[in-house]
Backbone:
């Protein structure tokens, strides 16, 4: 946790990954993020993975460091409370994060009528308002069709919700950018972040749109790295390692370490090219190169290759399960200063990550756990809306908050 955004208040009315991850990024940089949910929890409150007691580890992970207020959003009076929270006064308030529909009681127009300079960031499925999630957008842009074995035409759905995660990070960037403008001009902003546009723009930035227009869809190629040299290889003791050689230095280090200089030179002479200087040539002629590397890996054990690769400056990786990484990899989890071992509302104790970015030379504050649903209801009603204990008690008695 850092204090870069200390004093900033963000109200979050969102579910699933993109919206809550945006709020998480802001909270871990010091913002006060107040999340409102329906009484009993929203649609993601019990989402898997779950703890043995039924608590959602997913919800617990995405809502660390936030405050929670539970409101009956099915009733007009409850909706009025949500609007009042989003539009509450304050120079560093008036920021609202949501994935509610464009139209409705939480529309930008409705909120701007209460606070003209409000900044709303709205995570959407399709830009036209049609419903979608990460996985359906991913299918629409063709990524599952170019992923998987070359001899199988079935689509491969990714387990990593990349567009959701990118959406949360992009929304956080856009909100803080809009806040900077508001401090200079006083203007509010309505920011719409459709997953469809994130996917389309990202593939455009990567050159993939131009690629298909110039030469058609990219074929599936299994684990081969597109456009460069990279793949998994089996060692003599039955382990799989991945090596990647994109730069000339990575390539020459790999070839030298595996004693393939002469064999590669013979192919270069035959083809009239220099693989060290031509990244694309390594990809085009990978069918000639791979057998040499397969034989080199097959004659060496992991314990032989690891120190040799490190000494030779080779870019390589070892395949491991997440459990192996969590319990045994010091660079990722066991000795990583991003993590603190904390006990959470689910009752489980496990390593818990703070912000991924590190401010060099600045001390990290302790990581905060997720709240219990509605844990801060009374505090938020008092601090943000200025309600006294009698008014708060009446809201409880009427079942509008919990």
Residues:
């Amino acid at each position: 946790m850092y204090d870069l955004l200390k004093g900033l208040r963000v109200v979050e009315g969102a579910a699933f990954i993109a919206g809550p991850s945006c709020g998480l990024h802001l909270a871990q940089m010091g913002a006060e993020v107040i999340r409102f949910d329906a009484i009993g929890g929203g649609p993601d409150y019990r989402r898997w993975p779950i703890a043995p007691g039924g608590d959602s580890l997913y919800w617990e992970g995405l809502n660390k460091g936030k405050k929670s207020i539970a409101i009956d959003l099915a009733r007009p009076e409850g909706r009025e409370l949500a609007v009042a929270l989003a539009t509450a006064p304050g120079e560093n308030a008036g920021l609202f994060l949501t994935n509610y529909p464009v139209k409705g009681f939480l529309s930008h127009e409705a909120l701007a009528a209460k606070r003209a300079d409000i900044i709303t960031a709205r995570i959407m499925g399709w830009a036209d308002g049609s419903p979608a999630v990460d996985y359906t957008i991913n299918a629409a842009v063709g990524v599952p069709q170019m992923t998987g074995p070359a001899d199988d035409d079935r689509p491969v759905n990714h387990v990593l919700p990349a567009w959701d995660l990118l959406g949360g990070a992009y929304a956080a960037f856009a909100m803080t950018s809009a806040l900077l403008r508001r401090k200079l001009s006083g203007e509010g902003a309505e920011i719409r972040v459709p997953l469809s546009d994130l996917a389309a723009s990202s593939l455009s930035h990567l050159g993939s749109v131009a690629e298909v227009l110039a030469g058609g869809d990219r074929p599936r190629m299994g684990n081969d790295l597109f456009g460069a040299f990279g793949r998994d290889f089996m060692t003599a003791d039955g382990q799989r390692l991945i090596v990647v050689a994109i730069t000339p230095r990575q390539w020459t280090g790999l070839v030298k370490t595996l004693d393939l200089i002469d064999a590669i030179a013979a192919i270069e002479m035959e083809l009239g090219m220099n693989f060290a200087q031509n990244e694309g040539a390594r990809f085009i002629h990978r069918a000639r190169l791979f057998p040499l590397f397969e034989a080199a890996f097959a004659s060496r054990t992991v314990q032989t290759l690891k120190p040799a690769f490190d000494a030779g400056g080779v870019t390589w990786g070892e395949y491991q399960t997440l459990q192996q990484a969590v319990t045994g990899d010091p660079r990722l989890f066991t000795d990583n200063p991003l993590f603190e071992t904390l006990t959470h509302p689910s009752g489980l104790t496990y390593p818990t990550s703070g912000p991924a970015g590190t401010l060099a030379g600045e001390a990290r504050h302790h990581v905060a756990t997720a709240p219990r649903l509605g844990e801060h209801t009374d505090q938020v009603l008092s601090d943000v809306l200025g309600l006294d204990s009698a008014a708060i008690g009446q809201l409880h008695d009427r079942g509008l908050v919990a």
Notes: The chain has a mean pLDDT of 97. The chain has 17 helices and eleven strands. The longest strand covers residues 32-38.
